[in-house]
Design a protein that fits this description.
single chain, 7-stranded parallel sheet, two-stranded parallel ribbon, 12 helices, disordered C terminus
Length: 337
């Protein structure tokens, strides 16, 4: 059998590919680009745009192969509301549809697919289990939820599809919205928080995501959905305060009235000049913490990285990139020690 990784040169895919190569597995990376990573010497690369049905059908999927869909359009860069559907849906929904149909055509039943915790929307129960009500707050979350509905239809037709719903994934190679935070801290500028900062904020490491995907394969690809998040996330105020202290910055954390800030951001979004995506700011002061115990029970998956360490490692990568003195992988490896 082979492991077919759609989006295999992406954020999670490259780390999953490395894990599988280390396991001695045959790996096919299907992506629109190929980075210069050492472990790719032991992989087969197929140039693939998941929005192109014919391109997906050309990927050499066999009936016994294990398929992973890691391709996605994310919430960075921030898109104006008028462009969001056309930005998210071609890859997130239709790309998934093309992959599943290509698998069906060759009789390959096993898929691991990443969605997002953004399918939940506002917090209704705390902590959020996989049974939490779903009500996405924008096109990104909706595009991912629609793939879960699609997965449900194909499960009824005999496919095995494991779904993962991660919190904000961080790790080497992706800064995203964190870069704005790090710039404020580097310049000793005030760091505004939406709300009081007493609510926890939960990340998930890219390494923990890759391991979850590997364990789903090892467990026989359960027809289940699993939350992915860290354990015991700290309050936002403490998380940011520790980072400011680590950076030696004079930045002050500034609590704000959450309702007023959200309405201001709503207005900017309505005017098509968003500072943040609504799916980010509308839940920023809520208790959005995922219960990840199901993954441990079913897959033996336990997250290894703490939020505090991940954020400091991300800042270290930002500084390394700015100063050219350290590799990103070194900083994130040290975060686990």
């Amino acid at each position: 059998m082979k492991h077919i990784l759609f989006g295999g040169d992406g954020f999670v895919g490259r780390h999953l590919a490395e894990k599988l190569v280390q396991d001695g597995e045959e790996v096919v990376v299907a992506d629109i680009r190929k980075s210069d990573l050492a472990h790719y010497r032991n992989c087969t690369f197929v140039a693939t745009d998941v929005t192109d049905t014919d391109a997906v059908r050309r990927v050499p999927i066999g009936a016994d192969d294990m398929v992973y869909n890691l391709s996605a359009k994310m919430l960075s860069p921030i898109m104006p509301r008028a462009k969001r559907y056309d930005f998210f849906y071609p890859v997130n929904f239709f790309g998934t549809k093309h992959i599943i149909e290509a698998m069906h055509a060759v009789g390959a039943p096993n898929l691991v697919h990443f969605t997002t915790d953004m399918i939940y929307g506002h917090t209704v129960t705390h902590p959020m289990t996989e049974e939490h009500p779903v009500a996405p707050l924008g096109e990104y979350g909706q595009s991912k939820l629609d793939t879960e509905y699609l997965a449900g239809e194909w499960r009824e037709r005999g496919m095995n599809i494991t779904l993962f719903r991660p919190r904000l994934i961080i790790g080497p190679g992706r800064l995203g919205i964190l870069e704005k935070l790090f710039k404020l801290i580097d310049r000793n500028l005030p760091v505004p928080m939406i709300g009081s900062g007493k609510n926890p904020y939960q990340f998930i490491s890219v390494f923990d995501c890759a391991e979850a995907a590997r364990l789903a394969w090892k467990a026989g690809v359960p027809n289940e959905a699993y939350n992915l998040g860290s354990l015991n996330p700290p309050p936002v105020r403490r998380l940011l305060g520790d980072l400011v202290k680590h950076a030696g910055s004079k930045s002050l954390l500034v609590p704000t009235p959450g309702f007023a800030v959200k309405r201001t951001l709503d207005l900017l979004d309505l005017l098509n000049v968003p500072l943040m995506d609504p799916e980010q700011y509308l839940i920023a002061d809520e208790l959005c913490v995922l219960d990840v115990s199901k993954g441990e029970r079913d897959l033996g998956w336990i997250p290894q990285y703490r939020d505090e360490d991940m954020l400091i490692a991300a800042y270290s990568e930002y500084r390394a990139k700015f100063e050219g003195r350290q590799t990103a992988s070194t900083a994130f490896t040290q975060a686990a020690e």
